[in-house]
Fold this sequence. Notes:
By secondary structure, this protein is of the alpha+beta class. The chain is built from five helices and seven strands. Strands 1, 2, 3, 4, 5, 6 and 7 form a seven-stranded antiparallel beta sheet that branches. A hairpin with a 2-residue loop joins β3 and β4. α1 runs parallel beside α3. The mean pLDDT is 93.
Amino acid sequence: MSSMILPFEMAPQQGGLLCWAAVAVSLRRFYRKQESIDQIAFARSLLGANCNQVCQPLRALNHAGLRYREHSGPIPLADIEQQLMSGHPVLIAARYFIGWHLLVLHGIGHGTQMMIADSLHGPSRASYADLTAAYREHYLWSHTYCLAPAGDDE
């Protein structure tokens, strides 16, 4: 595959545990460019005043009006390419020690270099093989989230 990079911009997370809010708000802005949504207001609307806590990715995405489907573990590279070619970023839940971190794949460079948007550590790149083995040495790819097809009620 040749290079394919979506014009996705990740907002930095505004709390230590708010990667889910940063991703949901950034994805909503990606799909609805005219809308502006405040990350903290979004988090509070879902979890209340004590919003700097973990939230399940699908719950956050649904709250943002985005319908994604969860897959266990990494998905094949060909499936990631298909999602990106269709204009849809792919989300990764990466486990580390006792928690997890949510990332967005928004492109593939020459070969299998994945373009990663990370609300905590900033943008990065990693090969598909390296990413499936470990991200930043300690994060393990545990789940993948892809946009659900229209009319999919799962």
